[in-house]
Amino acid sequence: MWRKAYLRIMDSNYNRAKEALRVCEDILRFAFNDSRGTLRAKQLRHRLTRILLGLPVPYAKIVAARDTARDVGRERSLNDKKRPGAPDIFEANVKRAQEAVRVLEEVTRAVYPARASEFENLRFSLYELEKRFAEKF
Questions:
Q1: How much is the pTM?
Q2: Greatest alpha-carbon span in the chain
Q3: Which of 22, 57, 89, 104 lies in the 20 to 30 Å Cα band around 50?
C-alpha cells in the first residue's frame, strides 16, 4: 500500500512544512514579538507531527525511504526572489508550508483516504495563520 515513492514524497513534504512553520514561528517571535502568533505557529507545527506520526506507517519507514544522494531535485538552484524583510520571509514560508501540506493531503488521500482530511484541516488552519498575519501587519 505504501510504495517507496509515496514515502519519499511524504518525508520530503513533512520536512518542508515543518521547517517552514519553524521559520514562521521564529519570525513571529523574534521579529514581531507576537506571542499569540508564535504559539499558534508552534501548535500547527506540533499538529503536523502528530498527524504524520498517527498514520498507519511507521515514521522510521518514511525516513528509511529518503534518498538524498540520488534525489534529482537536490542540485537545483532555486534563485529565490530576495526577501528584504521579515514579512516577506513569513509570507514565503507560510506559503511553502501550505503547499507541502497540500501534497501530504493528496498523497495520503491516494493511499489512506480516511486520514487525508486531517491534512486538509491543517492546511485551512495555515490559511488562517496567514490571514491573521496579513491583517496585523
A1: 0.90
A2: 45
A3: 89
